[in-house]
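Researcher: Structure prediction, please.
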Amino acid sequence: MKGNNIIHILVILLFTFTNCEKNNDQSNNQITDGLCIQFGDSIIINHEEIDYYDFSTHMIYLKETHEFLYNSNWELGNISFSVYANKEKIYSGCLHSAWSSSMPVGPYIDFPFMYPEYVIKINHSSEEYYYPENSTPDPREDEEIINTLKVHGQFHAGLANSIDEIDIKPNGELSFKITIANRDTFNYYILSPERMGIGLFHYFTNGLSFYNQTTGWLNHQCAIASPEPWDSWSIDWLDLIEGGASKSYNIHYCDFDTIPSGQYQASFYYPGLRNVKINDINQSNGRIWLGGITIKTESFVE
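Model: Predicted structure follows.
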């Protein structure tokens, strides 16, 4: 009787091991030569499902919506993801809950997913955002990833954002100039602070910020206008920037925090739209850019 029990246990263990090995083989077989991203042990999005990769934002655009990205009602726990190039694991990260009080370190993807069900945005260590003096190498910019994307025609440079001028007035007024450069082959529609107005534009961004260890963060105090309804958007908000072209904007704040004399890191996040359906992203003359990008520069205030 005891011998039969031992045999029974061994059969169960062998069956379990065989199934695990089979599942791992199935997962590995789905990892193709191009860029792949694997969630947990079984969800794999391979390069055949990818339309292109916007390198300026590290956003992966899929050819179709993916059911995994629809699912926001299940327990993620500590699920991780891994990015592969040519079947080689380049780096790993985690899904970071919007309700978590902890700060992610390294690569992470926000959950619930913050973009439409055909977009995966991979972020990297928000610690540098909160503490600019702390920076770490960015594994998303690995050369193997770039080369793999180019081989499969999926690399797109996206947009670049620069802060050109900052003019600080003594009465709390502040003006600055930014330039958005389209380094891509696509024409892009981008959010326009001129078309939207300063209040609505800053619904999508915190705007210009100054930081040093003594003062912490210093920001504008302008009134924010919300879209109605909150998830709506209009083509009238957007400017078209053709591939290889650029556009500059002058933004003026009437009420900005007092900035004491000193050395600061100035940063500005240029936002994009998020609630754009897959059938709407391609407009008549270009694609809607979903953004966003942060530019940082050193600034001395007298």
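Model: Confidence is low (pLDDT under 50) at residues 1-27.
Researcher: Thanks, that helps.
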